[in-house]
């Protein structure tokens, strides 16, 4: 690994038996879907071998889980609890950036594993800017661990490997995907159909860099604020979106026209580009070709580009260590992405007691 890569500090590894805290950072959902919440809490506890604690949800304006200050306080309380080893989010939403102005206290608290995706891009990157710690773009309580009848094994296995260490193996790339979510209010949910599909290389090449990104529209909301601290050097840019966010006109605007990413120089520092699978994204050869042209035009010719990776709004889902150094090999039939160092830190060794 190049010594010049400006990596973040990995948080302590999640130990079996440590408490896993879960907090509503945006949408009010756990109270809305109590049966799925109970199933999800049990599944998360079983998956990690850790007791799980759900922070109380507030309710504000019918859809947001409390004011920004209240949601921030719930998060800070989990960080301040020495029994808590990791913090997960219940779900995304539209309002996690409400918390950021209330989170300066994080700089004085011990680092923790923080996991979320979608709207929680703002929370993850904001917390990273405050603490300088690696954060994890990965599964949330209700969407992934509430899956009926069980969470997808591929999602759980990579999460465990990434958080419980060392997390430095190549990313597993399933050859199938399924449409995210379903009818959470149904009394009898059905298993979702699986579709064949694998990541593919749009532009070949090899690269190293610091992993940075998340949900593209949400990331752009942070531009110009103190809560966006992209790497100073080579950057492996990982981007994903929902159906609307990755529709061709919206994606084109975000990447090549009025994009803050371009104005901030983030796209110019990209050493590789990874695009998450978006099941509701562009369909049909003409629209997909248009998306390909947008991506090829947005980045220099020596930047490898890989599409349909299993992160973001898709299942099964990888857990991405944002702020860690990774290598990308997009020269063969199957792309290969590998962290260049452990994604979490080994527990500090206790010194033996001094002899009396």
Q: What does it look like?
A:
With 356 residues, the chain is α/β, with parallel strands linked by helices. 25% of the residues lie in helices and 19% in strands. The protein has nine helices and 15 strands.
Helices and strands in order:
Blueprint: E1 19-23, H1 34-48, E2 52-54, H2 68-80, E3 84-89, E4 113-116, H3 121-131, E5 135-137, H4 141-145, H5 153-164, E6 176-177, E7 195-196, E8 200-203, E9 206-215, H6 216-221, E10 235-240, H7 248-257, H8 260-263, E11 270-276, H9 285-298, E12 305-309, E13 320-322, E14 325-329, E15 336-339
Parallel strand pairs: 1-2, 1-3, 3-4, 4-5, 9-10, 10-11, 11-12
Antiparallel strand pairs: 5-13, 6-7, 8-12, 9-14, 14-15
Helix pairs in contact: 7-9
Key features of this structure:
356 residues, alpha/beta, 6-stranded mixed beta sheet, 9 helices, 25% helix, globular, disordered C terminus
Question: Helix segment count?
Answer: 9
Terminal CA distance reads 45 Å
- Morphology: globular
Average pLDDT value?
A: 88
Helix content: 25-40%
Structural class: alpha/beta
């Amino acid at each position: 690994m190049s010594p010049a890569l400006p990596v973040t500090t990995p948080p302590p590894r999640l130990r079996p038996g440590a408490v896993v805290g879960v907090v509503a950072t945006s949408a009010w959902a756990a109270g809305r879907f109590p049966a799925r919440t109970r199933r999800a809490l049990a599944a998360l506890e079983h998956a990690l071998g850790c007791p799980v604690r759900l922070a109380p949800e507030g309710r504000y304006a019918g859809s947001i889980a409390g004011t920004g200050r209240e949601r921030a306080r719930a998060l800070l309380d989990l960080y301040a609890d020495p029994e808590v080893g990791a913090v997960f989010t219940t779900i995304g939403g539209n309002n996690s950036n409400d918390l950021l102005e209330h989170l300066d206290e994080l700089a004085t608290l011990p680092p923790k594993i923080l996991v979320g995706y979608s709207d929680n891009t703002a929370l993850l990157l904001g917390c990273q800017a405050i603490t300088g710690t690696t954060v994890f773009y990965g599964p949330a309580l209700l969407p992934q661990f509430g899956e009926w009848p069980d969470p997808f094994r591929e999602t759980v296995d990579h999460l465990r490997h990434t958080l419980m260490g060392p997390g430095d193996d190549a990313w597993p790339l399933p050859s199938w995907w399924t449409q995210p979510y379903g009818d959470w209010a149904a009394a009898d949910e059905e298993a979702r159909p699986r579709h064949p599909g694998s990541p593919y290389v749009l532009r070949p090449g090899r690269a190293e860099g610091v992993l940075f990104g998340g949900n593209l529209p949400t990331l752009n909301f942070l531009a110009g604020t103190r809560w966006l601290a992209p790497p100073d050097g080579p950057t492996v840019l990982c981007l994903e979106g929902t159906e609307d966010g990755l529709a061709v006109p919206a994606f084109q605007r975000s990447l090549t026209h009025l994009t803050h990413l371009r104005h901030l120089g983030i796209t110019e520092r990209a050493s590789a580009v990874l695009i998450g699978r978006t099941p509701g994204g562009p369909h049909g050869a003409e629209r997909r070709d248009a998306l390909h042209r947008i991506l090829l035009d947005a980045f220099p010719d020596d930047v490898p580009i890989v599409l349909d990776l299993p992160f973001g709004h898709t299942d099964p889902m990888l857990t991405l260590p944002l702020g860690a150094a990774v290598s990308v090999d997009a020269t063969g039939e199957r792309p290969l992405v590998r962290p260049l160092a452990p994604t979490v830190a080994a527990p500090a060794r206790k010194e033996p007691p001094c002899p009396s």
